[in-house]
Amino acid sequence: MFPKGPPPENVVTKDLRVGRGPKLHWGDPFVMNYVGFDYQTHETFQRQWGGDQSMHWTYGKEMVQAFVRGLQGMRVGGRREIIAPSNMAYNSGAVIYLVELIGTESSQ
Question: What is the residue range of 96's domain?
């Protein structure tokens, strides 16, 4: 899961499991699980996974570009790896996210 070499200059995604549910659309409220890793050290810096810890958001609202670009085209039930340079995450270094799209307003 952890790539070698310098971080990418743009967001890179890799589907680990393609979802079969509804597609996430701009402005949809949604629920996802995710874990954030530092690109260089591979240490977990953020984790919201399962049950009450799942993240509730609206696609495109107050999101870092890593998520805006990385979630694009994703379907409910999918799991994806998102690798993002610092300027598209939190400006504190490149990151790797493992995300799982649990549901959207249209799927519930």
Answer: 12-107
- Distance between CA atoms of 32 and 93, rounded to whole angstroms? 23
Q: What is the tens place of the pLDDT at every residue in 56-94?
A: 999 999 889 999 999 999 999 999 999 999 999 988 899
CB contact set of 106 (below 8 Å; sequence gap of 6+): 22, 25, 28
Confirm if 79 and 17 have CB atoms less than 8 A apart: yes
Q: Per the domain annotation, does 75 fall within a domain?
A: yes
The answer to whether residue 82 is domain-embedded is yes
Residue 76 lies in a domain: yes
Rounded (to 5) percent helix, strand, coil in the chain: 15, 40, 45
pTM for the whole structure: 0.91
pLDDT for the residue numbered 24: 95
- Residue 4 in any domain: the answer is no
